[in-house]
Design goal:
Distance between the termini: 53 Å
CATH class: Mainly Beta
Radius of gyration: 21 Å
Helix content: under 10%
Largest sheet: 8 strands, antiparallel, barrel
Structural class: mainly beta
Number of domains: 1
CATH architecture: Beta Barrel
Strand content: over 45%
Strand order of the largest sheet: 1-4-5-7-8-9-11-12
Number of strands: 12
Order of helices and strands: HEEEEEEHEEEEEE
CATH superfamily: Lipid/polyisoprenoid-binding, YceI-like
CATH topology: Lipocalin
Length: about 200
């Protein structure tokens, strides 16, 4: 086959290869200094305990155009859990809850990303906590417009939310209160504020 004999086919191939859908995905790094994984859970049905994980890393493979074709992998260190109360954090790392010694990370790997209205996406993926993997759906605001930082790196941000039942992952510890009800809620609200970076150094700014 030559370009002279098949000009239409060559033209169609050029259009296809030049389209955003065919653009080659590149690897963006999650910036741990500007990314946070936060959670909230009911305490005795009277208040809400909030905490975060202070160490999160991962990658996003994305062509910079069509986020529906991207893939996301997030890795969070269980040992970095922080609720502001050291004794409670130590308990959360034990076998009653996270069993951090045996399962040191929480991971999320996307399987599908789809539009969910103006400026919003819905990401479905596999969430693994304490060695148990369940499907989770994250509602995403973003991504933001790319911004070039002082270090020359390109940065993009987004915020994602979801709610899980911790019993699905084997986190069943609780105590029954004298007045009825449970000490710790089973529904856990999760918020992920993420910043990804591509290019020159990805410096800490």
């Amino acid at each position: 086959m030559t370009q002279r004999r098949y000009p239409l086919l060559w033209a169609l191939a050029f259009v296809f290869l030049s389209s955003p859908l065919y653009a080659q995905a590149t690897e963006w790094q999650i910036d741990p200094d500007h990314t946070s994984v936060q959670f909230a859970v009911s305490h005795m049905r009277t208040s809400t305990v909030r905490g975060r994980f202070n160490k999160t890393t991962g990658t996003v493979k994305w062509d910079g155009r069509d986020f529906a074709s991207a893939s996301v992998e997030i890795v969070t260190s269980v040992a970095s859990i922080d609720t502001g109360v050291p004794e409670r954090d130590a308990h959360l790392r034990t076998a009653d809850f996270m069993l951090a010694e045996k399962y040191p990370t929480i991971t999320f790997k996307s399987v599908k990303i789809e539009p969910a209205g103006s400026g919003r996406l819905r990401m479905t993926g596999n969430l693994t906590i304490r060695g148990v993997t369940k499907q989770a759906v994250l509602d995403i605001a973003g991504p933001s417009e790319p911004v070039k930082g002082p270090d020359g790196a390109i940065r993009v941000g987004a915020s994602a939310t979801t709610t899980i039942d911790r019993r699905d992952f084997g986190l069943r510890w609780n105590r029954v209160l004298e007045a009825g009800g449970l000490l710790v809620g089973f529904q856990v609200a999760i918020t992920i504020d993420i910043e990804i970076v591509k290019g020159a150094g990805g410096g800490k700014k």
